Amino acid sequence: MKITIIGTGYVGLVTGACLAELGNNVFCLDVDQDKIDVLNNGGIPIHEPGLADIVARNRTAGRLTFSTDMAASVAHGDVQFIAVGTPPDEDGSADLQYVLAAARNIGRHMTGFKVIVDKSTVPVGTADKVHAAIQSELKARNGNTKFSVVSNPEFLKEGAAVEDFMRPDRIVIGCDNTPEGQQAHGVMKKLYAPFNRNHERTFWMDVRSAEFTKYAANAMLATRISFMNELANLADKVGVDIEAVRQGIGSDPRIGYSFLYAGCGYGGSCFPKDVQALERTARDYDQELLILRAVEAVNNNQKHVLGKKIVARFGENLSGRHFAIWGLAFKPNTDDMREASSRVLLRELIGRGASVAVYDPVSMNEARRVLALDFAESAEALARVRFSNSSTDALQDADALAIVTEWKTFRSPDFDQLKNQLKAPIIFDGRNLFEPEVMADAGFEYHGIGRSVLTQA
């Protein structure tokens, strides 16, 4: 099939590359010429395991094309995926300007039946706005081309997006109950047929329900994380090991183990903005989502937990103190630092006069860019951030180590070397990578999240 992907960001690039891998002829459009140049020169603008090989293989085979030519992109695909960004607006709602600009472009150039697929995460009712935008452009040029707008939200985890796309646990597709919608149903069924050979993975529903499903899924996962983080903070006060609690409640099949790990807060491009956008949608209908408001508040507070633990140990004034930080990306296997907990911790430490040495296996270049923005008003503050060449390099002469991202490479360090390089054997573990008993036996002062009952060295 001929497919057009509008937007070569995280969702668009993974979707386009994986659909090409299945044998489709995919045209990827982006308005960013620099990004298209990178892709056409064999580069990848994001870090995602396995993606570079798929892109290279399908470019070579001629099934994957990258361009800024809007007219050509509309002419190419019978299916037009809109996979552009929907950043949060000032009021927390999803900013649909890029989605609607893509829709208008399709309406401006289409000459035959198209299935327009909203792949971006969008609020309920967006398909109606996309339909109206396309219809307006058709009317302006006296066109009467038929089309259908479909909702097909993505469920891709950063760091495992290729695997998630190629082996999905579910495919959600929303079509309207019109002749055009039924035609779109057939097209989408054909497109996703390779994923349903073993068993049916597609959940068919109306468009609005499909739009809502994406937000509901992310809101539920964010809720589980904030729930455990709130309990972990209480566990620290009452002498409870939150890891034992996690295993105890996770063994209940009605609860399960996923997304029940206590830590220093969630980040990234999805959970924070999707929770906010769903809250905003509710307010538009005179409803309040009290649970989600609490989820967001708990998460915002949780990003300060490591900083509070460090201040409790070293005092309010951290001038002259130097800390090592392992992990900058919001999660492992990505270089994404959007809403990352590390940024909150760095602002806290630098603001109190400390200096830091930071290391992340993948996101160092992105960290340099992002932290330059975070500390744009103070060159002196940014100068107190040292970008280290390795995890061991970051440890040199640090008063303590703080772990913010649970990269696998951090899980089994040489503890003797770690102790020798630190000024004092103190670890603040924002992801509970280590067992407190083991750390105590090794002579470390260990501060986890919700594990204070076991931190005596």
Helix content: 40-55%
Total of helices: 19
Percent strand equals 5-15%
What would you report as the Rg, rounded to the nearest angstrom? Answer: 24 Å
Q: Mean pLDDT across all residues, rounded?
A: 95
Q: Using DSSP, what is the number of strands? A: 14
Helix/strand structural class? alpha/beta
Numbering strands along the chain, what is their spatial order in the largest sheet?
3-2-1-4-5-6
Q: What is the global morphology?
A: elongated
- In CATH's first tier, which class of the largest domain applies? Alpha Beta
Q: What are the segments in which pLDDT stays under 50 over at least 5 consecutive residues?
A: none
- CATH H level, superfamily name of the largest domain: NAD(P)-binding Rossmann-like Domain
Query: What is the fold-level CATH name, i.e. the topology of the largest domain?
Result: Rossmann fold
For the largest beta-sheet, the strand count, sense and barrel status come to:
6 strands, parallel
Number of domains: 2
* Gross CATH architecture of the largest domain: 3-Layer(aba) Sandwich
- The rounded distance between the terminal residues' Cα atoms is 62 Å
